[in-house]
Amino acid sequence: MKITKLHDLYFKQFISSNELSDIVKTLAKKIKADLPKNEVPLFIGILNGCFVFTADFLREFKGDCEISFVKLSSYKGITSSENVEELIGINENLTNRTVVILEDIIDTGTTLQKIYEIFKTKNIKELKIATLFYKPDVYRKELPINYIGKSIKDTFIVGYGLDYKGYGRNLSAIYQLTNQPKMTNIVLFGPPGAGKGTQADLLKEKYNLVHISTGDVFRFNIKNKTELGLLAKTYMDNGNLVPDEVTINMLKAEVEKNTTANGFIFDGFPRTQSQAEALDAFLSEKNERINGMVALEVPEDLLVERILERGKTSGRTDDTDESKIRNRFNEYNTKTAILKDFYQNQGNYYGVNGVGSIDEITQRLSKVFDKL
Description:
By secondary structure, this protein is of the alpha/beta class. It has helices at residues 17-34, 51-60, 110-119, 196-207, 214-223, 227-237, 244-256, 273-285, 300-314, 322-336, 338-345, 358-371, and strands at residues 3-6, 9-15, 42-47, 66-71, 75-76, 79-80, 98-106, 126-134, 147-151, 157-158, 174-178, 184-189, 210-213, 263-267, 292-297, 349-353. Strand 5 (75-76) and strand 6 form a beta hairpin.
């Protein structure tokens, strides 16, 4: 689950894209089974919100059909208005046709009532109503709703065609209105030797954030020879990334230790897309989110030199062997760098030049942190 911001409001994932797909398939099969086999139905989509639902519904409806759209809006911001506009769109001859109205959501029923009254004057053979979502607690009309995809409580939702002031229609899942997150959570990202730890120590003081370093947590466990530490060491000694299952619960525990923090700088985590998805889901449960990934970008050859120099004092065996260092970069490029695409798709990726003095790099990073 994720939290996204649209204009001035925040929305938390409510219904996944997979669940949406199942709902639409079930509706399509039910309606197909109920309609006469020798009749071609006319589906009427109610714009603007229904266009995604209608497209998916038609692909799941295994039979001949026709589709048309009308527009009739009663929404202003996040509340339903009683001021219904005029109907625009129907040009087909509806006489003796079976018509199925496809709605994205039915709440008060004001829009639906107006549309229903208009269609009842068209000499239609049969008029049915199908809706993806239905709010029974606020429905005030007596119209029969023949098909309901999912009944929900009276909460404002966006995504899958539904919007807030024009935004959010392209979200693949359904999100519901939620409170603004209280924390600032940043993933500090970059290849081995990019200086994430050094910069995190400086930035945590400047912005009053808690620095969670996977490396520090691992080193603590390795030093104390815990079961987790011994397991992590076998991977690190071979220049490989520690598997997801070893790290996720560890990071959750670190967050739980700091419930009153202003936020976190995550250094060395997430390293894979599955870790990023797990972190999103964990923070969403707490009504929090990742504000952004800030990435230090440094040429690989320069980083190899840095790590070899660091290996003289770090005590890490994988800091002294160039072949192991190169293997870590291969791991980074094939597994971890994919996170750039993950956060870019969320609009949360910020690349920063990581070459220069510590102060210069801190200043560049601070400009991004100030925006976040």
